[in-house]
Amino acid sequence: MKLLIIDDEVFVHGIFEAICKTIKGVEIVEKFKDSRKALDFLEDSKIDMIFLDIQMPEFNGLDFLNELDKKGLQISVAIVTSNPDYAVDVINNKNVVYFIKKPLHKYSIKEAIKEAVYRKSLLEASVSLKNIKKSNEEKPTHTFFNCNRRMINLCHDDIIMIKSLEGGAKIVTNKEPMISSYSLKEIESKLPASTFIRIHKSYIVNAKKIELIYDNLVIIGKYHVPIGRTHSLKFKQYLANN
Where in the numbering of this chain does the Response regulatory domain appear (predicted)? Predict the structure, then answer.
């Protein structure tokens, strides 16, 4: 955890340094007496947590928290003060994770860091879920194929399998089969590999449609599609990873 200390009393900086040296995985990146300079520092620095004194001259801790909100910065903040009455003013601030009453003790600092670590893990998990959702939303759901001299936009979920033909390919769908002038290799390059797998030199199947695999055959409804010997290993690896 990378920490920032903001307190107008220099001796407090020393206490933080002494205590944090005894806590594993913690690094004090910088210390400030002036909270405005700390704001400037945050523009170009990655900090996980701030220990913030409330009672400071001119630009106090409350002013600092308001500026954090305006900038849209999400950083865990532990409030440090000798006056517990300030808790009312900051309790609803989204960045505040802990409240420490002076004098400083190792236990309260460690507990504040624990809260910050927990919050960081929640934020990282939230970002990860958003990225996965965005990635899924960005995946194409349709592909254009040249069928019967027309460009047809086929939904991937409607495609059951594709069979190679001389001079093209037969696209078997939930509705009706279509003949495309594209080769099987061309069609394979257009479809998402996460869903469509080539199991034979002459066949590509929609993995989502597979009902059963039996005796080197893939069963999809009424279709029994052979698994080619040269494609067998790749198909097994695909099944193992999906």
Answer: 2-117
Q: Percent of the chain scored above 90 by pLDDT?
A: 62
Q: Which of 211, 213, 196 is nearest to 158 (CA)?
A: 196
Task: Show which of 107, 137, 167 is a domain's final residue.
Answer: 137
| Full-model pTM | 0.55
Structural domain boundaries enclosing 124: 2-137
Q: What is the CATH number of the domain that holds 159?
A: 2.40.50.1020
Question: What is the b/e burial string over 198-233, where b = at least 16 CB atoms within 10 angstroms of the residue's CB?
Answer: bbbeebbbbbebbeeeeeeebebeebebebbeebee
List pLDDT tens digits, range 76-127.
999 998 887 777 778 788 899 999 988 999 999 999 999 999 888 877 776 6
